[in-house]
Every structure is written in C-alpha cells, then in structure tokens.
Amino acid sequence: MNTEPNVSPLPATEPAPRNTRRQVRQPLLLALALACGILLGANPFRPSSQNPDGTARGYLKFKEILSYVDRDYVDSVNAEELSDYAISRMLERLDPHSVFIPAKQQQQASSFLQSDFDGVGVEFNIFHDTVTVVSPVSGGPAEQAGLQPGDKILAVAGEKVSGIHTTTEQMFNRLRGPRGSNVVLQIVRRGMAKPMNVQVTRNRIPNSSVDVAYMVDNQTGYIKVSRFASGTYDEFKAALGDLRRQGLTHLILDLRGNPGGYLDRATKMADEFIGGTKKIVYTDGKGDQYDSQTYSRVAGEFEQGPLVVLVDEGSASASEVLAGALQDHDRALLVGRRTFGKGLVQQPIALNDGSELRLTIARYYTPSGRSIQKSYQGGLEAYEKDLVNRQQHGEFFHADSIHFADSLRYRTTHGRTVYGGGGIMPDVFVARDTMAFSAYYTRLQSHNLIRKYALDYVQDHKAELEGLRFEQFNQSFRITDIQLQRLVGMATQDGIPADAAGLRRCATLVRSQLKALIARTTYGKAAYFQVLNQNDAEMQQALQVIHDGRATLMQGLSMK
C-alpha cells in the first residue's frame, strides 16, 4: 500500500541503489579523480592535514583527467552524470552508508524525515497497471472531494496514469504539489458508466511517524513508531500521554521495521524511559571533533513500569540506539530478532548544486560500550546480502544459530550479559513466521492479490461493514474457506496455478492479512494494527513477558 509521503526515500539502513562492480566500466582512477573534482568544485579546496600532498595531487589529477574527458573523448559526455557516478563508486570504498545524493533526488530523500507534506492525501495501490484508491486520508483534500476506496484513477491533470506502467514514484510526483494548487483527477467508480473528473485542492497532509497507539487491555498500551522524523518525539509524547490517561501502566513499544532517522528524537524518547543522569549513547570519530556523549536529563513520562520493546532485522540506526540504551540500563526487555546493525554516524554536507554528501564521521556505541555497526570488511556486495545470509543460516528461525565471540561480551547495569558485534540481540528471541516463506504466499503478494481481494470485498459488502462497529467486526468477522477459494480463483485468473498444499501452509497468515486490510479500509489504520497484532507472534510473546512479570526490571533481575 502506498501513501503520498512514502516516496521510497533511502532508509537509514541502506545507501542509495548502486550498480554492482560488474557494471563498473571506467577505471577506478578516473572514478576517484572525478569524485574528487565534484567535491572540490562545491567546496573550497583545503588539503587534508593528515595527507596534504596526497590531497593536492588528487585534486590536480582530477582537473587534468576531467579536461581530457570533456575535450577529447570520442563521444559527447555528461560531465555532471559522470561525476555523480564516480562519487558513488568512490564512497563504496569507504563504508556502506557514506552516500552521495544528487540534487534531483535530495528533496525526495529528505521528505522521508518530514512530518507533513503537500498533496491530495490518498493511499493507493497499482493493480495490473491501474492506480486504485485504497483509502483517502481522513479529513484530507481527496476525502473532501469525494474520492472513495476502490476508485480507479485514470489520469492526473490530463496525463494518463493507468494502463501505461506508471510507477509508484511517478504517481507520487503527480499527486504532490504546492499547497493551495488544484489538480483534476479523472476517476472511474464501480457502477459508473463513464469516467468523471474530480478537482482536488492540495493541502498539508500529516505524515505521522507514530503509526498507531492503543490500549491492548486495561493496563497495557501499544505504540508503533515507524521512523524518527522531525515530529516523532512530539507525536510519541502525545500518544503516551493519551494512553496514560486511559490507564496505561505497562507499555509495548514497537520498533520493528524502523530504519532510523533523526538521532535526537530517539534519544529524547529514551529520556522518557530512563531516570536520573545516565548515558544513552556516545559517538567516537576521528580525533575529538565528532566525539559526543548523550545523557538522560529530564523527568520522563514513563521511567518506571514494565516496558517491552519489539525489534527485528529491519530495526536500524536510531531505533538501535534507543533499544540498546534501554537494554543496557535494564529498563526494558527486548523481544524479537537481532537488529540490522547500522551504527555509523553520517553528517549531511550540502553542496553548491543542491546535492548532498552524507559522510560517515563517527560510530555509535551503547552505554555499555557495544558498537552497533556490523562488519563491512567483506565489501558492499556481502554487506547488502547480510539479511539474506542470516535467513539462509537459520538465524531468523533458531536462536542457537547465532554465535558471539567471548570478546564481544558486555554487561548491563544489573550484570546481565549482552553482546556486541553488530546489531542489538533481543532478550527474548521470537522466530520469524515461516508461513511468509511459502512460495504460494509469495506469488499472491507479488501480484498484489491479497490487497486487491480485500478492497473488492469492502466494495461488495460496504453497507454490511458500515453497519458494524469495529469492536463487533473484530470479534465476529472471519475469513471463511469459501472466501479463501475465491482468492484462489482470482489468483488462477491472474496466472497463478492453484496450490492446495501451499494455501494450507499460509492460510492462517492470509486470513489475518485479509481481515486486517478489510479493517484498514473500513475503520482506519489503528484497526489494521489491532487485527494484525492479535495473531502476531512477537506481540503475543511481549504480552506474555509482561504478564509473567519478566518486564519488571527495576526491582532487580534474576535473568543472567
């Protein structure tokens, strides 16, 4: 499902997409020289104090080679594109997270960390090259203009978008625009004989990073944080305060899939949980210039009380800083799987042409001294395959497949053993759901058929669903075998052969997702997460940890 602000910017865990080394055709020397040139062209040339002669020679070499390429190469060349390419190749030699963002991509990358954007406010999916509205944002311009779930968008501002292989990014770019500007959408609706034009006035659309906050039971609250954007801390404070007023005494903080973002938002969130003056994170760079230490300082909103943090292999960077600090101070129990392992600090450096260099200038360390960053000594290709390798080695499914050297052993405040070496290992391991690895389920997902069936179901049963409160729906609604077979029939028509054994293997997961997606379209985002969490293994383990008393760490620990 896509919504306008999620422009697929670069997650904090991953650098910009790069060509493989097999695709690199130019000599490394040329790449290095061109890369030096673009940086020096945007910044006054200052030789390195460690190696001034080498820096100067590289600068002069760049000038000479770039002149020859521009003047004498047999074909016309785009010097700026060559420079961008060369910079990316050079940065590969440093680490996986130093990255160059060309000017035309910089705004898109930065939008990931914004808490609002200007657009029409609509979530959509692309089914068979047809752009289909999943849900207009509540109170947003699209909803006010009358768009409904299931509407098919044929054209935007007179430009055809359906039936022509429109990409998600292209659709985002067409829907976004200056606040107050008008855009005409041509749509077709079920039961409508002809398309109609709808004028929508773009406006500010909240881009929340706290996806949902609700009470699981009378005492236990749940907060899902998807990233650390500019407004995350304020959103979190508001959500936590609201749950406290509803009776929260236990909290589950969900950081699964959170790729990071602004570090200070994560450390301020940590300060809400950690009492006194305690170290949250420190950085170590070249010399003292980039060394820093961050401590808890304020009286937090939830410094006592059972706290469980959900993490997985998609939790990275700032989310690892937060999880590591809470674990090191024995303030929370972590449930899930080992986190990504992104512990390098990037400094954004704006260049004169609007592009940006994000250069690694330090490493993150948890209060106990653990480096969060996993090894990248095997090169970029091996680094990018790390999660695949974890799966193949069984780490997603068996805790005993993960081995740590004794030299990586550290101690928490109360003496529990934790390990460094990259990523944060949870206290309670939960295996990944093997149903998600069903070949049949993968085919259904790749064709977007689970979402499409859910949307079609909502349209076919709109009156029935609107007559139910969410509580009634959640308690009584079930995905039947007949409905599953209808999904199979839709898949068969789409070229996916029926697979009875494959369906049996993933049936529970498919039922859960169908119900959650139907709830999402009918009742909103909070309903989606509530339905999913009822059958989620990590969530159920977190609740068990709380009910067993294992999350009450402030009165002393028996876990070793």
TrEMBL record:
GO terms for biological process: proteolysis; signal transduction. The keyword Hydrolase applies. The keyword Protease applies. GO terms for cellular component: outer membrane-bounded periplasmic space. This is S41 family peptidase. It comes from Hymenobacter taeanensis. It comes from the Bacteria. Coiled coil: none annotated. One of its GO terms (molecular function) is endopeptidase activity. Residues 109-191 form the PDZ domain. PROSITE patterns: PDZ. Keywords: Hydrolase, Protease, Serine protease. Belongs to the peptidase S41A family. Residues 1-21 are annotated as: Disordered. The lineage of its organism: Bacteria, Pseudomonadati, Bacteroidota, Cytophagia, Cytophagales. Gene3D superfamilies: 2-enoyl-CoA Hydratase, Chain A, domain 1 (3.90.226.10), 2.30.42.10, 3.30.750.44. InterPro entries: ClpP/crotonase-like_dom_sf, PDZ, PDZ_6, PDZ_sf, Peptidase_S41A, Tail-specific_protease.
